[in-house]
Amino acid sequence: MDLSKLKAFVVVAEELNFRRSAEILGMTQPPLTRLIAGLEDDLGAKLFERTTRQVKLTGTGVFLLKEGREIIARAEKLEHEVRAISRIKGGALSVAFSTTVFLASLPKIIGAFQERFPKVTLQLHQESRPRLFAGLRQGQFDVGFVEGTVEEEGLAADTVHDEALGVLLPKQHSFARRKQVELSELGDETIILHPRRDNDRFHDTVHLLFRQSGIKPKVYVKSDWESCPVLVAIGKGVSLTILGTQQCVFPETKFVPIRQLSLPVSVVWNPENTNPALKGMLSFVAENAALRRKNAVCLEEGLKF
Amino acid sequence: MDLSKLKAFVVVAEELNFRRSAEILGMTQPPLTRLIAGLEDDLGAKLFERTTRQVKLTGTGVFLLKEGREIIARAEKLEHEVRAISRIKGGALSVAFSTTVFLASLPKIIGAFQERFPKVTLQLHQESRPRLFAGLRQGQFDVGFVEGTVEEEGLAADTVHDEALGVLLPKQHSFARRKQVELSELGDETIILHPRRDNDRFHDTVHLLFRQSGIKPKVYVKSDWESCPVLVAIGKGVSLTILGTQQCVFPETKFVPIRQLSLPVSVVWNPENTNPALKGMLSFVAENAALRRKNAVCLEEGLKF
DNA sequence: ACTTATTGATGCCGTTTAGGTATCAAAAAG
DNA sequence: CTTTTTGATACCTAAACGGCATCAATAAGT
What we know:
2 copies of one chain form a homodimer. By secondary structure, the first copy, chain A, is α/β, with parallel strands linked by helices.
């Protein structure tokens, strides 16, 4: 089906007069008559009941009018949006990350986005979960990335991808050559954990995991985020973490994913925000999300957090 | 913009290879290259970043891919539905009415529908409100019409039009020549009312109206629906009713609307019902609803019932 | 009852557009 | 350095689309 034909149909359906419709469409009556006849042929449906003196819609026509209007409106909206997005030269996008996502997924998301939208200036903010949501509501941020799923009043959200959850090990460790380990195998290990911050979803999740699996790891060495890999590197224990940038920093450490455990990462945005760069980011994220759905059973399935 | 071009774009965006895409589209590579170039020209946006050896999407392209897929899917769905609707020859639609709507609005709705969909066989059912909803849920009815607004779990609803609420008067009555009356003017009249049935929204509304306006009409002569106009005709009093078929039955009576009072009529249907005739009815009703929004402040605004 | 005006349908023609063939230039692979 | 693969270009043909003239049917005016 052809949108231009559909548009012509809508005009005729509204005017119920071929001559006037043709004038509105900037053409003459005969080709319009043939155009409508062609549309009816294509669809295999009579759209108008016409005598030489009056035109009226058939039931099928009534339906096509209603739906056709919507499709045309949507296509035109799309066209405008595409123009708007392409016109972005020095557009700006204010992006907020929760700490966990900031450390783990930032290069994946931002690097690929920059490649696609090289002219968009990105402002990156590392924020706690509640301040991130507040910033989105107030328009301070255009888009946010947080771990877990999001259901916040007034904000829209989607899952971007699932980050693999695993252990950071010293390279000499017996697990370091394995492709993956079971959570239950960590019972004998010394786990290095960072202190809990406000609204720290990752921290809560780790504790929940241990409680649910019945594992009581030997020692908790409280540390901060940045020094965890250092302590692992010097053999003080292993650290529960997310596959991310950390693993590359210390070549003395190795990341091994835990079987069937992953942490979803979500995009969050304010649906009232009209920044065209935001639309670009959202479609970009949607495209990638479709590609990544292949591995790892989502943590969400077993644990609602 | 042209849907066929958009379809071609989507294929290229998915394949990222002009030759293969052309094959999928059943054409050769050169026209496809020109077609995409033309689309980029139309939209004033670069959609692909291409070297002679590799094609990749630009940010704008990513956006257009996501949105374009949806529009194409919708257009194709529309095409199928139109074919389905037009294919209805001996299709059937089971329609249920509440008593009030049955008496007042049936010819308006059904008559016009029959004109549009002459080949659809209609089965009409007069049902109480709860049995009507139950029937819709069970698939016994395809569509229902009731007075008031509807918010029922599992059912979809829309307002069709607003029925004028008014008084049925003997022709000799002093109000009979007026264009409209105020509700407050009815304080001195003898009101003829029918007995209340189960879930009788109309009946409840009338009582609510009197209570809210502080009017206490002289006498309630209990009667049944059918004999109300008879009693009016012989001068026993006036009857509160809806502009409908009744007024035509007895030439001795006259209907006069009450200012700013009307009763909305809603369509209700089961969103899971796939009967193509239902889609026809819904678009038909939507078309008419758009036309009728002009008169009468809706009763709903003052009275939620 | 007859004429007139208006409406949608049809036949014919020219222009525009879309697709096909042949070929080119650039870049990766051997 | 040759071969292969890729998207771009030039040129041609055919179908589509729109315009003009005209017809047939019907409602309105006389």
